[in-house]
């Protein structure tokens, strides 16, 4: 098994900060009320917490959908989808280094992109089991939306990512 670098405790704090910023940008763009957003069934996991099947070396992150069901005895309390954003620490660290950008900006970029997927999944604008040949088209749409959302940040570090033609997503 190759050794893949994981975020350290300082970098994990940046993940939390970037997650907050990305969520703010997304709710602002899609006009989602905070209460609605809180019901959005997603979670963010870093490499250390990923299952082997959730790790990839060919993307900075991937969002997977799991069916969840909460039950007490025979009673089903809740049933629905859970979107897990699987951050690939090693790939993100490498991308930040290659583009000479701060990790926080790279994380905001990645998380915004993945949250656009989450919103599109949630609104059934994107199918979970999208056929392979349709994926590049969906990706370019998501990436375009991500870029117009991020253009509003006026953050020079994020601008550097946007202007570097950097894309490494599924
Ligand atoms: Zn994507």
List keywords for this structure.
170 residues; alpha+beta; Collagenase (Catalytic Domain); three-stranded mixed sheet; 17% strand; binds zinc ion
Report the major sheet.
Answer: 3 strands, mixed
Cofactors, ions and other ligands in the entry: zinc ion
Range of helix content: 40-55%
Percent strand equals 15-25%
Number of domains: 1
Task: Quickly name the level 1 CATH class.
Answer: Alpha Beta
On the 0-100 scale, what is the average pLDDT? 90
Radius of gyration, CA atoms, in whole angstroms: 16 Å
Q: What structural class is derived from the secondary structure elements?
A: alpha+beta
- Total helices: the number is 6
- Residue windows where pLDDT falls under 50 for at least 5 positions: none
Q: What does this protein structure show overall?
A:
This protein is of the alpha+beta class. It has one domain (about 10-165): Collagenase (Catalytic Domain), CATH 3.40.390. Helices cover about 50% and strands about 15% of the residues. It is built from six helices and three strands. The chain has a three-stranded mixed β-sheet with strand order 1-3-2. The longest helix is centred in the first third of the chain and has 22 residues, at about 10-30. The chain is globular and about 55 Å long. The chain starts with 8 loop residues before the first helix and ends in a 7-residue tail after the last helix. The model has no long low-confidence stretch (mean pLDDT about 90). Zinc ion (ZN) binds near residues 113, 117, 139, 142 and 170.
């Amino acid at each position: 098994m190759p050794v893949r670098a994981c975020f350290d405790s300082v970098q994990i704090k940046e993940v939390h900060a970037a997650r907050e910023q990305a969520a703010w940008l997304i709710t602002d763009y899609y006009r989602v009320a905070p209460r609605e957003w809180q019901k959005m069934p997603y979670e963010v996991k870093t490499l250390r917490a990923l299952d082997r099947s959730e790790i990839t070396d060919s993307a900075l992150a991937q969002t997977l959908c799991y069916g969840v069901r909460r039950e007490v005895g025979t009673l089903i309390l809740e049933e629905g989808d859970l979107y897990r954003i699987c951050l690939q620490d090693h790939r993100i660290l490498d991308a930040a280094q290659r583009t000479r950008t701060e990790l926080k900006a790279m994380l905001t970029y990645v998380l915004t992109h993945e949250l656009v997927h989450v919103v599109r999944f949630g609104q059934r604008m994107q199918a979970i089991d999208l056929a392979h040949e349709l994926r590049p088209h969906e990706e370019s749409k998501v990436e375009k939306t991500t870029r117009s959302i991020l253009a509003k940040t006026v953050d020079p570090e994020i601008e550097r990512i946007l202007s570097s033609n950097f894309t490494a997503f599924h």
